[in-house]
Amino acid sequence: MERILIVGSLLAIVSGIMNGSFTLPMRFLGRWKWENVWSLFIAVSCLLMPTAIISAIAPQSWTLITHAPAHAVWVAAFAGFAWGFGAIMFGQSVSAIGISLANTFVLAISSAMGSFLPMLLLAPHKLLEHAGRMILAGVAIEIAGIALCGWAGWQREKAAGVGAERGDLVGSARPMGVAFLLVIGAGVLSAVFNIGFALAQPIAVYGRAQGLSEFSSTNLIWWIMLAAGSVANLGFCVYLLSKNHSMAKFRQPGSVRLYSLSGLMALLWGGSIFVYGSAVPRLGSLGTSIGWPLSLATGLLLANAIGIGLGEWRSAPARALGWMYSGIVVLLVAIVVLSRASY
Questions:
Q1: Which helix (H) or strand (E) is 198 found in, with range?
Q2: For residue range 6-15, what is the model confidence (pLDDT) as tens digits?
Q3: pLDDT tens readout for residues 231-266
Q4: Which residues have CB under 8 Å from 166's CB, separation 6+?
């Protein structure tokens, strides 16, 4: 049993590494508009990749989806569609304030809400048990880390100005106030993604009853949620492509590198979802409450390391960096607390 929990925790961490690094290619995609990058990213990660995986591993899944419990299918579709708007806000926030801060706020908010709410909805009696207390403590520590990192970002903007050290980052810089609204919206709606996954578990149960493996049965939920989320994302991208007359950028000379980087984004993020789906069943009855914050906190830390390495904090004063490092340490403590909840 302990070995299974360790494997589940490691898979959640691998998922976080993939999630924390998927925005890195955006730093080198400034020749395209935001909507060019995001539409390709969504099409591959939310439609092509999940469809290919399901078709290759369990082609009978398409029939099973049509016969899965209707209420769970609707929950998955609604949660996925809501998450789609959160994904839009997250993509915009990365362009607004950089990889480091955007990931810090969005992943931390999503981690806190996405771990606590599934437990509250599905197993409220466990709030007072050891695992529940550990999760609540981990969430509280994460909130403290968010506050420290947020203060660091505010100090950075005051000293360096809006859009400092952007490099070739795709999209436009935004004032910190606007960016805060984007990351709050993205964090809240991203948490809906995990809540929807937790509430849509009857689909996976039905899949296993029909002979699917645990991995293939969770893929039924992912496909529904990702397909629903792609509707919101691609709809917004089509609007921007028309408004900004940016469709022609797909055909500009030398775009092979841009297509490759956008595809890499999709493979990293899409892969993180399926790895997370493999982690949850191994983490016990509170898998969604433990795996989600563990994965997102790992991604948060990696994204900060990437942002610092790329020079996003080069012009920040020493005190701002001090607050950021303090926040990272606090978030490391949160990871330890949340990872121990399964024991």
A1: helix 176-199
A2: 777 788 889 9
A3: 999 999 999 999 999 999 998 888 889 999 999 999
A4: 98, 173
Phi–psi pair at 326, nearest 5 degrees: -65, -40
User: Which tokens belong to 282?
Assistant: 């191994």
Tokens representing 90 are 């997250």
Give the largest Cα separation in the chain, rounded.
60
Domain that holds residue 211: 2-340
Q: Taking the mean position of all CA atoms in its chain, how far away is CA 1?
A: 28
* Ranges in the chain, pLDDT < 70: 1-2, 111-112, 114-119, 121-123, 157, 159-175, 284-290, 338-343
**Number of domains observed in the structure of the chain:** 1
Can you read off the two tokens belonging to residue 29? Answer: 């995609």
Measure the CA–CA gap between 200 and 218, rounded to whole angstroms: 9
Query: What is the enclosing helix (H) or strand (E) of 250?
Result: none
How much of the chain is helix, strand and coil, in % rounded to 5?
A: 85, 0, 15
- Which pTM does this prediction carry? 0.79
Would you state the torsion angle of the CA atoms of residues 160, 163, 166, 169, taken in this order, to the nearest 10 degrees?
A: 170
Q: Are the beta carbons of 117 and 191 closer than 8 angstroms?
A: yes
Contact criterion met (CB below 8 Å) for 188 and 106: no
